[in-house]
Amino acid sequence: MMTKFNLFAMAAAGLVLAGCSSTPTEEGTKTTAAPATPVVGATAASAAAPAAPAATAGSVVYFDFDRAEVKPEYMAVIKAQAARLAGNAKKVTLEGHADERGTREYNLGLGERRAKSVAEVLKANGITADRIKMVSFGEDRPAVEGHDESAWSKNRRVEFVAQ
Prior knowledge:
CATH superfamily of the domain at 53-163: OmpA-like domain
Distance between the termini: 63 Å
Mean pLDDT: 77
Helix content: 25-40%
CATH class of the domain at 53-163: Alpha Beta
């Protein structure tokens, strides 16, 4: 009887430890939790941000680490999308994404906040809310596979998808 109890206790301890996996942070160290609250509105620049709007063909907006505010260099991308939408009755889906750092739940929320930021700029440029759909994929659909800043910077994004 004691052997079964010891075996059960060891299995339970293994499951508890497996549930405490860690996630790399921007500095490449490990942490066991994502930030408790997002920092929205700060203007910290990313060291290896993707090329500016000309390289994105006007359908992607990139974000800094753990941020959801639209960077000034991407305002022209969003305004061009608003102008394109103003010329027709089509709708647009804004797909919010995050890099792999942080918990799944946190990254889903971050992707949603990023999509909302882009939607606010579209609305400020004349696109009505009923033409904008937002969805967050968090870290689930990376644009680039990898575990370094060059990959992460391309995964922190909102993509425009015409409907």
